[in-house]
């Protein structure tokens, strides 16, 4: 009974764990937004003498994003949406009669501009600002309109300042983790693919039915994480960002993605023809599975800089294997496809991106033991 309760509690904590991790990563962004909104509220109260400056606080909240670059983009789009709303509403409020005709023109024009898509989700500020401006201009409240727009300007300014100065995020560690997960996944799948060649089994029975989907997901996650890491370093004033030695090159991600694509093509071929490499121990299957394991070792060492020392020997062995496979007068078409996929993977690994010297990582013991077989 006690063991059952413990298992239920463990399962529930496992479901809560990812939510807690997401919340911890968002704490800094939420704190910057809260500080920006609070400073805007105080500044509007002191400078503009408004009792409830909600427009300024809302602007500060909505422009603060995860990186400085995204915050600047959000601030520009927010300000552009408000400006377009004012430009649409003022002429209609002053010159169009009757009032309903002017309101109809404002709503029609502002909604059409918002749905053009060039402002993204900040396009909603075009019709909202237009309606507020139309009501205040028609009601002869120019002072309130000026105060409303000044609040927005202050909110955008404080949002930009807090995003740029209050410990802006440097999202390099998450990119390193995503790239490491992709390397390990591709290397392990290559090693298991070699097992399928030895056993003459379909890859789905060894790798699992969703291995292709998992591989595609890992590639997309690593690509997005590296792009976000690059973006987080732009316009970042933190000393840690300026001193960081950059080693997350997009070309490394492209190399791993190319290898993953060739791995997927090889797996699909072996799914349809499990014996395409021939019986285990033959002149083709045995060296081919060794080349797959060597490729896995080179994949795990793909971190930029010089390729793995085993890569030139692997390419020479592949050339000899291809020559031996072409000796018969009518070589097997499946064998040729297996060789082409492996040659493409090794070619992608031959010229990785440059990286700082001394950035090496040890291969995990389970993977190293598997690759030695």
Could you say which structural class the secondary elements and strand pairing correspond to? mainly alpha
How big a fraction of the residues is strand? Answer: under 5%
Which percent bin holds the helix content? over 70%
Q: What value does the average pLDDT take?
A: 82
Question: Can you count the beta strands?
Answer: 0
What order do the SSEs take from the amino end to the carboxyl end, as H and E? HHHHHHHHHHHHHHH
Count of runs of 4 or more consecutive helical residues? 15
Rg measurement, Å: 30 Å
Major beta sheet summary? none
Q: Identify the overall geometry.
A: elongated
Our measurement of the CA-to-CA distance between the termini, rounded to an integer number of angstroms, reads 43 Å
Residue stretches low in confidence (pLDDT < 50, at least 5 long) are: 1-23, 355-373
Textual characterization of the structure:
- There is one protein chain.
- With 373 residues, the chain is mainly alpha-helical.
- The chain contains 15 helices and no strands.
- It has helices at residues 2-48, 54-63, 68-95, 99-114, 125-138, 142-165, 173-199, 203-207, 211-233, 239-243, 250-272, 285-300, 310-325, 333-350, 365-371.
- α3 (68-95) runs antiparallel to α4, α3 packs parallel to α5 and α7 (173-199) runs antiparallel to α9.
- It is elongated.
- Mean pLDDT is 82; it is low at 1-23 and 355-373.
Q: What distinguishing features does this structure have?
A:
373 residues; mainly alpha; 15 helices; 75% helix; elongated; disordered N terminus
């Amino acid at each position: 009974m006690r063991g059952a309760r413990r298992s239920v509690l463990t399962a529930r904590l496992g479901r809560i764990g990812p939510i807690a991790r997401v919340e911890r990563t968002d704490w800094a962004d939420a704190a910057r937004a809260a500080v920006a909104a609070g400073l805007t509220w105080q500044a509007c109260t002191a400078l503009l003498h408004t009792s409830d400056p909600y427009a300024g606080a809302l602007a500060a909240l909505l422009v603060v994003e995860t990186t400085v670059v995204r915050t600047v983009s959000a601030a520009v789009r927010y300000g552009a949406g408000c400006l377009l709303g004012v430009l649409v509403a003022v002429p209609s409020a002053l010159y169009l009669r009757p009032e309903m005709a002017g309101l109809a023109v404002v709503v029609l024009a502002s909604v059409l501009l918002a749905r053009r898509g060039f402002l993204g989700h900040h396009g909603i500020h075009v019709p909202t600002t237009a309606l507020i401006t139309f009501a205040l201009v028609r009601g002869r409240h120019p002072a309130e309109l000026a105060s409303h727009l000044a609040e927005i300007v202050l909110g955008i300014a404080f949002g930009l300042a807090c995003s740029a100065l209050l410990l802006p995020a440097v999202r390099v560690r998450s990119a390193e983790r995503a790239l490491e997960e992709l390397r390990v996944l591709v290397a392990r799948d290559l090693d298991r693919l070699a097992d399928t060649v030895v056993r003459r089994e379909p890859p789905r029975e060894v790798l699992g039915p969703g291995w292709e989907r998992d591989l595609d997901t890992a590639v997309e996650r690593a690509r997005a994480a590296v792009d976000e890491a690059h973006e987080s370093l732009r316009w970042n004033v933190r000393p840690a960002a300026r001193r960081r030695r950059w080693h997350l090159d997009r070309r490394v991600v492209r190399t791993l993605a190319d290898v993953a694509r060739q791995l997927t093509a090889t797996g699909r071929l072996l799914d349809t023809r499990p014996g395409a490499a021939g019986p285990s121990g033959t002149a083709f299957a045995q060296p081919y599975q060794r080349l797959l394991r060597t490729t896995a070792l080179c994949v795990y060492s793909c971190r930029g800089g010089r390729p793995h020392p085993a890569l030139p020997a692997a390419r020479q062995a592949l050339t000899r294997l291809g020559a031996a496979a072409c000796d018969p007068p009518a070589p097997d078409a499946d064998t040729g496809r297996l060789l082409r996929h492996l040659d493409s993977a090794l070619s992608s690994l031959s010229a990785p991106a440059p990286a700082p010297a001394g950035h090496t990582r040890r291969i995990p013991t389970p993977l190293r033991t598997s690759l030695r077989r």
